[in-house]
Amino acid sequence: MASKLNLYGGYGDFKEYQTPDLREKHIAQFDREFWKISGCTSKMSVLEIGCGTGQFLRYLAHKEVQFFRGLDHDPALSAYIHNDVARNFVVSDAFKYFANLGTEADYDRVVMFDVLEHFSVEDGANLLSTIKSHLTSDGQIIIRVPNMSSPWGGQYQYGDLTHKAAYTPGSMRQLAGSLGLFCSAVYPQKRGSRSRNLLQNILQGTLNKMLVDPPEIWSANFIAVLEISKD
Fold it and tell me: Which helix or strand (DSSP H or E) is residue 59 part of?
């Protein structure tokens, strides 16, 4: 009888874990993909689910966020988390973490970069619903996922066999709406040099005029901002 496939068994080797640097380019990226679009301030509480080796945690420390925490289910990551943020790192399954959190501990911002696609649609919905119950009234969930409405999204979606669900901006809105959440904005992920981005914008603008059904967002990944619906 064939043994059960365990894709997470050698995940650290696949991802080539190492303690991350935090350079100006990383700070600028997180400013674009989190700080500016979420309106975060240093006085807010921030939770990152699936923090990996902790680069975003180092960013939050750099921004002098007063309370932040990062979760990941892989205990092997403990060896790669930078000492500056080691006390902010928790090895835990997200559902277990929230179950032990209590009813009074709410977060202003919850971040999932390249995480939601690792859950089935049903489990992802359950996770978002659980997060919703631990958000402040003006809280937000910031999500980055591969963009399957883009011709370039497949390399990210199918480049990791642990991915279980695929999203477009439209299906992200659908998922949010089914949970009493509101997708207030979606953004492209901008990477690379200014000159390369300029050329991409020219190409995409031309294709928008040529194609009957161009994608809403062309970038290989997109960022979504979810909030609790006020209706």
Answer: helix 55-62
Other beta carbons within 10 Å of 33: 20
Residue 4 lies in a domain: no
Q: How far is 140 from 182, CA to CA, in rounded Å? A: 10
Q: How many CB atoms lie within 10 A of CB 119?
A: 20
The reply to whether 80 falls in a domain is yes
Which CATH number covers residue 68? 3.40.50.150
DSSP annotation of 35 reads I
pLDDT digit string (tens) for 121-160?
999 999 999 999 999 999 999 999 999 999 999 999 999 9
Distance in angstroms (rounded) separating the CA atoms of residues 138 and 51: 23
Between helix 121-132 and helix 94-101 the angle, nearest 10°, is 20
Q: Which domain holds residue 77?
A: 22-190+219-228
Task: State the total domains in the chain.
Answer: 1
Q: Is residue 105 part of a domain?
A: yes
Beta bridge partners of 91: 72
Q: Where do we find the tokens 């006020």?
A: 230
H-helix or E-strand containing 154?
helix 154-157
CA 148 – CA 151 distance, rounded (Å) = 7
Specify if 99 maps to a domain.
Answer: yes
Which residue is listed with tokens 């370039």?
152
User: If 0-12 CB within 10 Å is exposed, 13-18 middle and 19+ buried, where does residue 69 land?
Assistant: buried
Verdict on whether the full-model pTM lies above 0.90: yes
